[in-house]
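TASK: fixed-backbone design
INPUT:
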């Protein structure tokens, strides 16, 4: 049976590292910056991208490579690139496509750090973003496009708005407008959703979340679907010689891997934001149990969401697995599960909410999400603090919103923790 046919549960364990006779069964940490070669000609071939191999761990490394191959297999892409953080993955996914003077469109319900990156830092680099309400009809969304629009960016499950991406509409829009659809699949993970199969062209992750899964290592990854036509006239950087790389033409020389190879040999080479071998090892180890953990995260979140929805002191709960969620049907259509993240507000607003958070004993207040331990966070005063109130509302963050990252502890203990904290308000 070919590896492509393996189910995802098998791929999380078996893809990537392929030991040869007598080599370690488990992916080793190649903690080496450099690689030895017999002749200068061998190294020249690497520089010319004529031979496959590693030359320097700012650009590639065998531990990272095995992890990248596994991620590409899980998402169904032609290649992957591991980055130092999720933020860096989003940055490179955009800068690899758009230059100073270009523009792209992003669905407004986004992670706060991504909003800050797009609206401030990329703007300083001359790349303009328009944040749009992705729920608008297709024809309305088209009006935001300009001749210099180069991409659409959106999250599968928005953090923390919990909106579910309308893949059909957004991928149709991207195709009709001749730009790639980039999807941040962090909350869903490839176990719950594979955006490339739903019309996305490029996937990014903060592997810091469920991929690592244990809150040990910050990292990011970009996966190239290999499907986008960079030769449609809008992307000269892909079809004209790269002066910084002695005249390489990415589409001519690398075919359907043009995007991911360009990202590595231009952006990772020059910015130096590659993932470290140690963190690649930990992310790969996390992946080996992804499917088992995600099932429990989803099951626990569903039960906690139902408990909270029926509690008299709760004013609202948002979880796409609840029938009351505006995207309940869409979640069923596109996702195998709704992740371990839910949001809610308590009667009495943010003041009572803060009291509740402080009264939790098992669930901790941490600036993190999507690991095995149950945790809570108040985005308006934490992750989304740097945004204006209007930007917070656009990102789906109301002042009273509490985000719960439901862990994989016994659900009875999680519910009784929330129950005792609710009694104190
Ligand atoms: C955390 C997060 C990021 C940023 O990732 P880092 O690894 O923290 O840089 C991007 N997108 C989403 C959806 C996130 O949750």
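OUTPUT:
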């Amino acid at each position: 049976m070919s590896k492509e046919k393996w189910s995802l549960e098998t791929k999380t364990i078996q893809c990537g590292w392929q030991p040869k006779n007598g080599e370690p069964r488990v992916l080793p940490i190649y903690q080496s910056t450099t690689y030895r070669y017999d002749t200068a000609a061998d190294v020249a071939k690497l520089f010319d991208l004529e031979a496959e191999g590693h030359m320097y761990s700012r650009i590639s490394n065998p531990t990272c490579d095995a992890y990248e191959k596994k991620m590409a297999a899980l998402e169904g892409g032609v290649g992957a690139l591991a980055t130092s953080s999720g933020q860096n993955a989003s940055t490179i996914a955009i800068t690899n496509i758009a230059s100073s003077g270009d523009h792209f469109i992003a669905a407004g319900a986004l992670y706060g750090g991504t909003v800050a990156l797009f609206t401030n830092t990329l703007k300083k680099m001359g790349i303009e973003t328009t944040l749009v309400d992705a729920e608008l009809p297709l024809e309305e969304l088209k009006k935001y496009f300009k001749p210099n629009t180069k991409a659409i960016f959106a999250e599968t499950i928005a953090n923390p708005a919990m909106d579910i991406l309308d893949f059909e509409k957004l991928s149709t829009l991207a195709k009709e407008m001749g730009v790639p659809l980039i999807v941040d699949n962090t909350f869903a993970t490839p176990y719950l959703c594979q955006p490339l199969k739903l019309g996305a062209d490029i996937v990014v992750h903060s592997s810091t979340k469920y991929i690592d899964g244990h809150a040990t290592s910050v990292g990011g990854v970009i996966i190239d679907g290999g499907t986008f036509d960079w030769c449609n006239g809008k992307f000269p950087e892909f079809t004209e010689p790269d002066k910084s790389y002695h005249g390489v033409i990415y589409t001519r020389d690398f075919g359907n891997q043009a995007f991911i190879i360009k990202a590595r040999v231009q952006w990772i080479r020059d910015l130096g934001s590659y993932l470290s071998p140690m963190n690649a090892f930990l992310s790969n180890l996390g992946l080996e149990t992804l499917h088992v953990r995600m099932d429990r995260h989803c099951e626990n979140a569903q039960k906690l969401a139902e408990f909270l929805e029926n509690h008299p002191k709760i004013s609202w709960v948002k979880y796409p697995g609840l029938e009351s969620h505006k995207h309940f049907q869409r979640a069923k259509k596109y996702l195998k599960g709704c992740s371990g993240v839910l949001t809610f507000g308590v009667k009495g607003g943010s003041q009572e909410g803060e009291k509740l958070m402080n009264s939790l004993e098992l669930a901790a207040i941490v600036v993190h999400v999507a690991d095995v331990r149950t945790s809570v966070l108040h985005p308006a005063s934490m992750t989304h603090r740097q945004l204006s109130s209007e930007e917070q509302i656009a990102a789906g963050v109301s002042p009273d919103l509490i985000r719960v990252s439901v862990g994989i502890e016994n659900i009875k203990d999680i519910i009784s923790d929330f129950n005792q904290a609710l009694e104190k308000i």
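COMMENT: The mean pLDDT is 96.
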